[in-house]
């Protein structure tokens, strides 16, 4: 999908945003950090906006294993647990994602970025909602709460855990916290 050099540019852009803020992501700073000229940078991306859109696409590609977890379990509660834990594992292994993607202020001043972020969120919501609905039809998940509300509780809580982890300087184990969250969410939504 991306060339090796494009991935290097994207990963360096993520690092700059995470460490210094989006205001310090300039093509000049990016080229300097990588050790290439600005014209060399433009051979791979037309402008900063294209780099930021690539950051979102890159994040989405890195999260595909988490979406794939929804197909690996038999019961819906296990699917949801796998979805959550795989997200947290990926973020734990890529801590800069938390500082960049989970800070929507990085993307809210540009319509194209807002659209890409909305697509990213909607994709996860739709996939997870279909799993919740299946669980509700199989009487595995409570029917007295709407599927969209359950999805919002899961994704909203997941987001909060990641933000707390990131803002605390990663002082707690994200995956351990995720396991406890999964147990709690299963108790809350289980039909049993």
Give me the strand/helix succession: HHHHHHHHHH
Shape: elongated
- The count of β-strands is 0
Described by strand count, sense and barrel closure, the largest sheet is:
none
Give the low-confidence spans. none
Q: What do the pLDDT scores average to? A: 90
- First-to-last CA distance: 44 Å
Helix run count: 10
**How does the helix and strand content classify structurally?**
mainly alpha
Work out the radius of gyration: 18 Å
Summarize this structure as a short list of keywords or feature phrases.
single chain; elongated; mainly alpha; 192 residues
Detail the topology: elements first, then pairings.
Layout: H1 4-20, H2 27-34, H3 38-42, H4 48-62, H5 64-68, H6 76-93, H7 95-100, H8 111-137, H9 147-167, H10 174-189
Helix pairs in contact: 1-2, 1-4, 4-8, 6-8, 6-10, 8-9, 9-10
Word description of this protein:
The protein is built from 10 helices and no strands. The chain has helices at 4-20, 27-34, 38-42, 48-62, 64-68, 76-93, 95-100, 111-137, 147-167, 174-189. It starts with a helix and ends with a helix. The longest helix has 27 residues, at 111-137. By secondary structure, it is mainly α.
